[in-house]
């Protein structure tokens, strides 16, 4: 039956607005080389490669893994290309894990990237699906009304969004790979930044980044005494973008994915049993919203964890100690960064943003119109 | 390892141009109903859904997102998507059943080639820095490959592309303990493997299709150009006694490879054969290849 899988290496690029110094293949390779060094494996050890990225229109290349097959070490091996919208980085990690859990392979390389500077993501996101109202306002225009609905429903004070932004940007200053590193940011400076999509201000939104992340997964036999982050549970759920009764603030697909995840991991009280979480927060207000969706807080109460400082490093549940999506957003890679950072925490390899004593960590990603969810729990214990 | 079988298959008609949307919903809804009807499954009985399609073919980011509307995915579903031919979505679903997390999976693929100019679109699968700016279309690349084969004496027929089509296909997989309930003669997957080659290689060699497949009665192969069936038969070691079927009624991209698996399974379901090969390909000039052996029990 199901074999155990573990992360044995994580690597990422230095994320930036434009990585004009590398091609797409070079960007991926930078992350892959770091992950393979971290895992102490060579190319002969890799059985298969899984590549994830968000829409091909972001770079203007159709199925770029085909041209990159040799550069990412896939030539002569099985190569899968995953695309599940913004959740794709997480889905990439989960598909790679399933290659091992199924008993098919012993060591698998997962890589995810986005090189947003090759094209214009805002244009690629302003799509016109059939029978739906065109938005033409990018992701912020889509999500701002849902944030307003959250504030109205929960009665959260308006400074919560700015608090998350300050925390994440200061965390990012501890992460050498982060795109935005702002140790001196303050609540006042965030609140003085320009309003983009009410209530989302400039400093409360993620950057557009070029970047990649890679992880090496291994079967129990192939771990061979290495430090490992054991995959305890994985979950993916999907619901349609729009339908009568859709709850955009607390989507059922996210709730049910989390319930399945906790059940599989044997976790009954996530707030007490999870030591740190890397969750997909592209706009600062999504921290309290996803805390509720994931079951860390009752509906309407997620913002209280943020307000009292529980989600800061040193708090009871540090959220995004790496700085998260608020500091680096290479879209297709952002989910795998969350999954990889969770693994780094339980492996004790998170450097300056290490959460002391982290043993169980959550990696989370979402995509589309709050409709695709992927998540995993990793642990230092087998 | 757990046993997994193909227990159902349906495909839309392959037409030059459908009037439907590029997210495939109009092509998918009838074939979902057909395959669920055949297997006696309801939507709620499907443990895992997985699809294959291409945003570039639709000319729009996230085209697969609205394809989910064909399912009616509420309550939410356990679902994934590959930006590949849906034969590889079937591979992901097969993995999922092997892990023991699920017992049934519905796999679908769709492509509406008529939404754009596929000859222009497919040029974008090539190296974006040094090759794609020259816009080499797939017929031109296949023409070069065909010329090399003519000169090597591999074939004498003229270059014959299979015309692009709009189409969709769907396959249902089930684990060993469920397959018998859903199908009288399940097509057991006794082997499924895939590989990719470097994009630049000698075009008469297809190392990623070099699988020893043993004796099969029928081979359903996925070759966008007729001469490529000869290359594939050679790499797969298919003997003269094997009936090799290729794409005949058009090439519904991203659904065609899955349809080869579904068609091969139908030979088992209907009792025409006991061991068959299905093959799927992806990328320029057969860059990526998948083989699936299906057997009766």
Report on the structure:
The complex is a heterodimer of chains A (382) and B (297). With 382 residues, chain A is of the alpha/beta class. Chain A has 13 helices and 11 strands. Chain A is 33% helix and 18% strand. In chain A, strand 10 (360-367) and strand 11 (372-379) form a beta hairpin. In chain A, helix 3 packs across helix 13. The longest helix of chain B has 15 residues, at 25-39. The model of chain B has no long low-confidence stretch (mean pLDDT 96). Chain B contains 9 helices and 11 strands. In chain B, strand 7, helix 8 (227-235) and strand 8 form a beta-alpha-beta unit. Chains A and B meet through helix 2, strand 3, helix 3, strand 8 and helix 9 of A and helix 3, strand 3, helix 4 and strand 6 of B.
| Sheet with the most strands: spatial strand order of chain A | 3-2-4-7-1-8-11-10-9
Number of domains of chain A: 1
Which of globular, elongated, flat, extended, rod-shaped describes the shape of chain A?
A: globular
Per DSSP, what share of the residues of chain B sits in E-state strands of 2 or more residues?
15-25%
CATH architecture of chain A: 3-Layer(aba) Sandwich
Instruction: Tell me the strand percentage band of chain A.
Output: 15-25%
- Runs of chain A in which pLDDT lies below 50 for 5 or more consecutive residues are none
CATH superfamily of chain A: Thiolase/Chalcone synthase
CATH topology of chain A: Peroxisomal Thiolase, Chain A, domain 1
Architecture of the largest domain in chain B, CATH level 2? 3-Layer(aba) Sandwich
Q: Return the structural class of chain A.
A: alpha/beta
Whole-number count of domains of chain B: 2
